[in-house]
Amino acid sequence: MNEPTTASAPDGPRVREMTLADCARVAEIRVRGWQNAYKGLMPQSYLDGLSVAEDAARRRDRLLQGDGSVVNLVAERAGSVVGWACHGPHRDDEVRSRDVELYAIYVHPDVLGQGIGQALLRESVDRCAAAGHERMLLWVLKENAPARRFYERAGFGPDGAEEPFEAAGVAVPEVRYARVLTAAGPARAHAPAESVPDGS
């Protein structure tokens, strides 16, 4: 396996590609992120039923079986993984487009508002722009105002698409955001990081 590439800003977190050894910590961050960010936005029974162990097993399986088209990034601070982001191909009616989709950003609740989400988003945007993708798309809960502000400050905006995410039989509305990517346009995000429902 190739050595994961890394990126970091002065005094900022170190962003690198996720490894199998990170999967348990990433699962913890993802589950705690859901439970923190979506409290009151979706059924509590659904949030309470999320399992770190089951999520970690899925992360490992997907990393082992992946074809390289999905990129998992982690942010480290003082040697500890504190955030995770994932992006990959966007499908429109099951046909791959030239767009890319940000599937998820999760930051551990203990370090929200400390620039972790900004660093992850910036790295994802920069990689996708450098790869020649035309747009980055993502889905966010319609009622998740902090997350929507986070993306809007990074240059994303709603493109008019909406659909529900089902949680414990309850339809939770989502809206799709988009941003045009350019090689000279790194992400500029200045709001506390929030989580993106990725359905995975």
Shape: globular
* Percentage of residues in DSSP E strands: 25-35%
Count of separate DSSP helical elements: 5
Question: What's the overall average pLDDT, rounded?
Answer: 86
Helix fraction by DSSP (H/I, runs of at least 4): 25-40%
Q: Segments where pLDDT lies below 50 for 5+ residues?
A: 1-6, 184-200
Q: Kindly provide the radius of gyration, computed on alpha-carbon positions and rounded to a whole number of angstroms.
A: 16 Å
Find the count of extended strands (DSSP E, 2+ residues). 8
Which oligomeric form is depicted?
single chain
Q: Could you give the order of the helices and strands?
A: EEHHHEEEHEHEE
* Head-to-tail CA distance between termini: 25 Å
Structure description:
With about 200 residues, the protein is of the alpha+beta class. It contains five helices and eight strands, in the order ββαααβββαβαββ. The chain has helices at about 25-35, 45-50, 50-65, 115-130, 145-155; strands spanning about 5-10, 15, 70-75, 80-90, 95-105, 135-140, 155-165, 170-180. An eight-stranded mixed sheet has the order 1-2-3-4-5-6-8-7. α1 crosses α3. The chain is globular. The relative contact order is 0.18.
